[in-house]
Predict the structure.
Amino acid sequence: MTNTDERAARVREVRRRLAQEGPPRTRDQEGDFETVTLPEQYCDQLRDLMVSEGAEKVVEVGLAYAGSALAIAEALATVNGPLPRHVVIDPFQEREYSNAGWDLLCSAGLDSIATLMPTPSSIALPQLLTEGFVADAAFVDGSHRFHEVFVDLYFLRKIVRPGGLIVIDDAWWPSVHTAAQYYERNLRWTVIPGAFSGGPIGVGPQGTPGPRCTAYRLPDPSFEPSFEDFRAF
């Protein structure tokens, strides 16, 4: 077994334990892990999407119990690029989650490629942009307030390379859906059909059941629209 196989197998084992046994500790709220974490089916599809993209550098907004982070890490191990990097942003990881998610990532040996930024995404993302960091993809599962989702997507479109991916969790929430609609209608973000297939497990803003995650392809090349071309969303 190669080192690449060993790394991927180690991450898969931590993922398996998390799915079967739950995290080592949770917040004092009934069903908190099941409510907060991305379901295993979607984690698998997120991993497969990142692998098919050949993603080497990924930004993730929101860590919690690390379900999606471990899926992304498995993809990075499978792709086995020369300089993998996984930047995770979560200002609540220590205070709310007692570092449960970060400890799981470390137990999978991922602290060598992962960086935790324990600051709000509205501060962390501009910092990454200033540093010149370029990502192949991003996964967004942070604040669900419209204005904060909108700001996350604003900076991520500048950080993720042209033609890259931005995956949004809880895309059925009216606030999240509405923020994403601006970028879809005005900045030519295109939905990747079938990226998250399977039975509908949520109800969208118009009351239509659908998958909770939406994957977008960014335009290549990127562009800035004229203010005269604004389309209401």
User: Anything to note?
Assistant: The chain has a mean pLDDT of 94. Helices lie at 3-21, 32-36, 40-53, 67-79, 100-107, 121-131, 146-159, 174-186. Residues 117 and 124 are 7 Å apart (CA to CA).
